[in-house]
Amino acid sequence: MNHTEVLTRYTANFVDELSKNGVTDVVISPGSRSTALAMTVIEHPDMNEWVIIDERSAAFFALGMAKQTKRAVALVCTSGTAAANYFPAIVEAHYSRVPLIVLTADRPHELRDVGAPQAIEQIKLYGDYVKWFQEMALPEASPKMLNYVRSKASRAVFLSQEGNAGVVHLNLPFREPLIPDFSLPDLWGEDTGQSYSPTFQGTKKLHEQQLNSLMKKLQSKQKGVIVCGPQMDKLLTETIVQLASKWGLPILADPLSQIRSGEHDKDQIMEGYDAFFRNEEIRKALEPDFIIRFGAMPVSKAYLFYVKEHKHALQFIVEHHAGYREPAGNTTEFIYADPSLLCNDLINSSISLNIDPSWLQKWQTMNRVAKNHLLTKDEGLLTEGEAVRCLVEVIPENGSLYVGNSMAVRDLDTFFMTTPKDITVLANRGANGIDGMVSSGLGAATKGKHVTLLLGDLSFFHDLNGLLTAKQYSINITILLINNNGGGIFSFLPQVDNKKHFEALFGTPIDIEFQQAIEMYGGNYTSVSTETDLKDILYSSYSYKGLSVIEVKTDRTTNMEWHRKKWQAIEDELLNSEE
């Protein structure tokens, strides 16, 4: 068997096994050393390939796709710095628990550390940010080696999705020549109809003794809070709502919790807590006896203050699988179990709680006051917060909203009120970076739902390269670009008082007119300055085929003053009512 046949059979069995384990999408960054992998993916009848030139953009595109589908997406690149450019998205995937399979082609061993071009140290390149690394054997085509390559592919897919999802990295060395021969008979190997290593996984439940122990700890408590942070399990929504109803507790629902939207009952959902938690006196007045949190830590920094200040309250964090997401540093009990099953078991417990009925009423009153002020319109002024509120009003049923970091996600937290519409909300809140947002949104937009990407001008500028993918694949996406000419979030931080260095180091104005760049990539650009125009253009964009960018230009200082005026009005009314 000659070199080309060995290379072909080895690679074809590997790619076919990825497919048999459920991988349907592979994002390819073009290059020479990855020729066999890239061409074989494209030849496979059950694979969708996405060819993206910029590796950083490619990795974030795969990340967004994996977030939307909740399935592993594979990445293929050549050797050298191409692989290093995947790193930012790998960090994000690690912290946000997104399954990615990174396949880096490499020089064979004899060309490493000898000054050969495009050869860097790729062994464990991503360190502890991957769940599993494997340096693959050089291609062979014996039955034993074809079983070997299938076992590695099968294991890679399983491990990327097992437990807390994450990244796996396989480094594949190839010798030249690199071009496979797809005319070979039985190219994809024996068709067994199933994975090389089928797996069966059960669900985690607390046993009765553990449930009773938990309930007895809560039995004498009168004031509790259920918190739902960023998470993607929409089945959890109904059971959390039912548990809160049974116990008479408020639900603090993060905008990324998937609980603010949908047809479930929302009487006990508090979406305005970030606004009234900004006052220390109000936080003290809402001192809880216990807090039960589902999902990751909420976006709200004011909520973090609330948790830190009430460290003596019993605190529980519910996770599907073992992990540690508790940045407050409080004494916390972790419950590792299926959250929906846990809620059902708590609802059906024979032990009842003794919650003070005035507790929930107090939260509901404060939430109504906050919402009243936040939803009050300022005539003639299209602020960043009102732009977000308009977006939530207009976004279509069963749509997806992908939100950027910094001010965008915080404005969503403040102005995304409960709605009967079914809206999936996505974000890159693992590492909270502004990089790769355009590409992430486009990746999510490839999978059925129309995606609206909400982000600021710095995030947009940082990933302009991502727009090429929208042009290449005619991806339908609406981008709401909030342009305050710089880093608006810093206007709310102490750095704003340092006038000498603020603009250069934190405000960072870029003074760019984005219209030409958007049109260069075949996008439809519109600038709006009124609420009516914004709603009309947003609505029209959802029937537009391709890339549609709607820009709202704002002023950072005016925006900061407007937000603070809202927060102050809420504080004043709540504190005066307490007197």
TrEMBL record:
What is this enzyme's EC? 2.2.1.9
Name the Pfam families for this protein. TPP_enzyme_C, TPP_enzyme_M_2, TPP_enzyme_N
Q: Does the keyword Manganese feature in the UniProt annotation?
A: yes
Q: Which UniProt keywords apply?
A: Magnesium, Manganese, Menaquinone biosynthesis, Metal-binding, Thiamine pyrophosphate, Transferase
The Gene Ontology terms for molecular function here are: 2-succinyl-5-enolpyruvyl-6-hydroxy-3-cyclohexene-1-carboxylic-acid synthase activity
Q: Which cofactor does it need?
A: Mg(2+); Mn(2+); thiamine diphosphate
According to the entry, every stretch annotated as the Thiamine pyrophosphate enzyme TPP-binding domain falls at 438-552
Q: Copy out the cofactor comment.
A: Binds 1 thiamine pyrophosphate per subunit.
The Thiamine pyrophosphate enzyme N-terminal TPP-binding domain, residue ranges: 13-124
Query: Under which pathway is this protein filed?
Result: Quinol/quinone metabolism; 1,4-dihydroxy-2-naphthoate biosynthesis; 1,4-dihydroxy-2-naphthoate from chorismate: step 2/7; Quinol/quinone metabolism; menaquinone biosynthesis
The chain positions of domain Menaquinone biosynthesis protein MenD middle read 205-403
**Database matches in Gene3D superfamilies:** 3.40.50.970, TPP-binding domain
Q: Which reaction does it catalyse?
A: isochorismate + 2-oxoglutarate + H(+) = 5-enolpyruvoyl-6-hydroxy-2-succinyl-cyclohex-3-ene-1-carboxylate + CO2
Q: How does it assemble?
A: Homodimer.
Q: Which PANTHER family match?
A: 2-SUCCINYL-5-ENOLPYRUVYL-6-HYDROXY-3-CYCLOHEXENE-1-CARBOXYLATE SYNTHASE, PROTEIN PHYLLO, CHLOROPLASTIC
Which family does the similarity line name?
A: Belongs to the TPP enzyme family. MenD subfamily.
- What does the protein in this record do? Catalyzes the thiamine diphosphate-dependent decarboxylation of 2-oxoglutarate and the subsequent addition of the resulting succinic semialdehyde-thiamine pyrophosphate anion to isochorismate to yield 2-succinyl-5-enolpyruvyl-6-hydroxy-3-cyclohexene-1-carboxylate (SEPHCHC).
Protein name per Swiss-Prot or TrEMBL? 2-succinyl-5-enolpyruvyl-6-hydroxy-3-cyclohexene-1-carboxylate synthase
Q: Which organism is it from?
A: Virgibacillus byunsanensis
Q: Which gene encodes it?
A: menD
